[in-house]
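Notes from the 1:1 (GR / supervisor)

We went over the backlog. Supervisor wanted to see one worked example end to end before approving the batch request, so GR pasted a single chain during the call. The sequence is below; no edits were made to it. Supervisor asked that the structure be written out right there so they could see what the output format looks like.
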Amino acid sequence: MPMYIFYPCLEDGSPTSFEAFELKDDEAAIAQGERVLDGHASATHVLVWRDGETLPPVRRPAPGAPEAAGEGAADA
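Structure output shown during the call:
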Protein backbone atom coordinates (compact mmCIF):
# COMPACT_ATOMS: atom_id res chain seq x y z
CA MET A 1 0.00 0.00 0.00
CA PRO A 2 1.26 3.50 -0.76
CA MET A 3 2.23 5.93 1.99
CA TYR A 4 0.28 9.19 2.06
CA ILE A 5 1.40 12.26 4.00
CA PHE A 6 -1.17 14.87 5.04
CA TYR A 7 -0.26 18.46 5.89
CA PRO A 8 -3.04 20.51 7.51
CA CYS A 9 -2.37 24.13 6.44
CA LEU A 10 -3.42 27.58 7.54
CA GLU A 11 -4.94 30.04 5.08
CA ASP A 12 -1.46 31.38 4.21
CA GLY A 13 -0.36 27.86 3.21
CA SER A 14 1.90 27.15 6.18
CA PRO A 15 1.49 23.63 7.55
CA THR A 16 0.73 23.17 11.24
CA SER A 17 1.75 19.49 11.43
CA PHE A 18 1.72 16.32 9.39
CA GLU A 19 0.20 12.86 9.59
CA ALA A 20 1.21 9.78 7.59
CA PHE A 21 -0.89 6.73 6.71
CA GLU A 22 -0.56 3.70 4.47
CA LEU A 23 -3.79 3.62 2.48
CA LYS A 24 -5.30 1.49 -0.28
CA ASP A 25 -5.65 4.19 -2.95
CA ASP A 26 -6.16 7.89 -3.70
CA GLU A 27 -9.88 7.66 -2.96
CA ALA A 28 -9.13 6.41 0.56
CA ALA A 29 -6.55 9.20 0.88
CA ILE A 30 -9.07 11.90 0.03
CA ALA A 31 -11.46 10.48 2.65
CA GLN A 32 -8.60 10.44 5.20
CA GLY A 33 -7.73 14.02 4.23
CA GLU A 34 -11.27 15.07 5.13
CA ARG A 35 -10.88 13.41 8.55
CA VAL A 36 -7.50 15.12 9.06
CA LEU A 37 -9.07 18.47 8.17
CA ASP A 38 -11.92 17.84 10.62
CA GLY A 39 -9.32 17.29 13.36
CA HIS A 40 -7.52 20.60 12.76
CA ALA A 41 -9.90 23.50 13.38
CA SER A 42 -7.41 26.19 12.34
CA ALA A 43 -6.58 24.52 9.01
CA THR A 44 -8.31 25.71 5.85
CA HIS A 45 -7.03 22.85 3.69
CA VAL A 46 -4.92 19.70 3.74
CA LEU A 47 -2.12 19.02 1.28
CA VAL A 48 -1.85 15.34 0.37
CA TRP A 49 1.37 13.77 -0.91
CA ARG A 50 1.88 10.27 -2.32
CA ASP A 51 5.29 9.02 -3.42
CA GLY A 52 6.63 12.55 -3.92
CA GLU A 53 3.59 13.74 -5.90
CA THR A 54 0.76 15.96 -4.72
CA LEU A 55 -2.90 15.10 -4.95
CA PRO A 56 -5.54 17.84 -5.14
CA PRO A 57 -5.81 19.60 -1.76
CA VAL A 58 -8.73 18.79 0.50
CA ARG A 59 -10.51 22.06 1.33
CA ARG A 60 -13.30 23.08 3.66
CA PRO A 61 -16.56 23.92 1.90
CA ALA A 62 -17.18 27.63 1.41
CA PRO A 63 -19.48 29.12 4.06
CA GLY A 64 -23.09 28.61 3.02
CA ALA A 65 -22.18 26.08 0.32
CA PRO A 66 -24.07 22.79 0.30
CA GLU A 67 -21.99 19.92 1.70
CA ALA A 68 -22.34 17.78 -1.43
CA ALA A 69 -23.86 19.30 -4.54
CA GLY A 70 -26.86 17.40 -5.77
CA GLU A 71 -27.10 14.96 -2.86
CA GLY A 72 -30.72 14.42 -1.98
CA ALA A 73 -31.93 16.90 -4.58
CA ALA A 74 -33.61 14.18 -6.65
CA ASP A 75 -35.36 12.82 -3.54
CA ALA A 76 -37.02 16.15 -2.62
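Supervisor's comment: Strands lie at 3-9, 19-22, 45-50, 53-59.
Batch request approved.
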